[in-house]
């Protein structure tokens, strides 16, 4: 019975974690159709993706304190209801600006599911069980970008782009019902928990003072912005410039997801022989080289669809090595403020991702160049952050050692 109950809990938590990736990726094959229906351009439609990223960035910081103040389920109910309403309102849009605003609201709703699912794993499972459950959630989150655009491509081809939002709204309703009837409240509300800005801001400032955090959180977030540049511009590049079908684009997106997921899995294996710091360094150097060559090819019109897929796969593969190690290193110094550090890193990732997606969206839709340009700039800025940040980390370690010697 216990195993059956665990299965249902993991299934519901996995569904909560999958809602965000499905919301981001499922409507990507519809960019061309959305632009035609709303009498807009694909680059303007891509701003609805940017607004979603901005909503997720803001929501990361919003829901953490709410989940501690009111328990897990009430904020989750609020987020899901907000998501459902905004999803069905997307059916009635007549203007691209309405879609951009509704996607922002939808993101604020979906963020509750992502933050709550992680918090509830800690609440509901033992220390021994948690890593396995987190691995299951990570697998769901990793597989979702492979399934969502492919399923979205077929759905849009058969029924039209608005039915993606029907699907997402119905998915959220099922998750809400499962949450109400099958998911236990895993955390007792804390009436003494303060939602005043000052203690929350103080906690974030303490996190930002840690050199290891700001060095590796910046590396993780800046390189991750290259992924958002790819996600935002890929519908235009593959369907408009290379004339790939909606379903074909979905399969390409799934294939490229394998590169990112595969390298993150290989990373888990090679950690037996190499440190996280070394992996980040070498992967970042490789990413700089690959993205620079990609940019040179784009500027000289040497690219075709296969070369473009190859260069994106190389960039995402490097990211599969960089991101998990940089995330682990940035959170390593914290025990007390781990929640604040995690929320801050998530907000930073999504904030810079939103900026990158806006940049490629505003750069037009007739050239591949903006995507490798953003990727190259991101990779080299991350490398500079690594070189400068390591000096501050070393200085802090030496200062701590001197203080320890003086104490004795």
Task: Explain how this protein is built.
The chain has 408 residues and is mainly alpha-helical. The chain folds into two domains: 1-182, Up-down Bundle (Growth Hormone, Chain: A); 196-401, Growth Hormone, Chain: A (Up-down Bundle). The chain contains 15 helices and no strands. It has helices at 2-25, 31-37, 42-45, 47-70, 73-89, 96-124, 130-159, 162-182, 197-208, 211-241, 246-270, 276-299, 305-331, 338-361, 370-407. The termini are far apart. The model has no long low-confidence stretch (mean pLDDT 84). GO terms for molecular function: xenobiotic transmembrane transporter activity. It comes from Pedobacter chinensis. It is found in: Cell membrane. This is MFS transporter.
Task: Please give a quick description of this structure.
By secondary structure, the chain is mainly alpha-helical.
Secondary structure elements and pairings:
Layout: H1 2-25, H2 31-37, H3 42-45, H4 47-70, H5 73-89, H6 96-124, H7 130-159, H8 162-182, H9 197-208, H10 211-241, H11 246-270, H12 276-299, H13 305-331, H14 338-361, H15 370-407
Helix pairs in contact: 1-6, 1-7, 1-8, 4-5, 4-6, 4-14, 5-6, 5-8, 7-11, 10-13, 10-14, 10-15, 11-13, 12-13, 12-15
GO molecular function: xenobiotic transmembrane transporter activity
Membrane topology: Multi-pass membrane protein
Subcellular location: Cell membrane
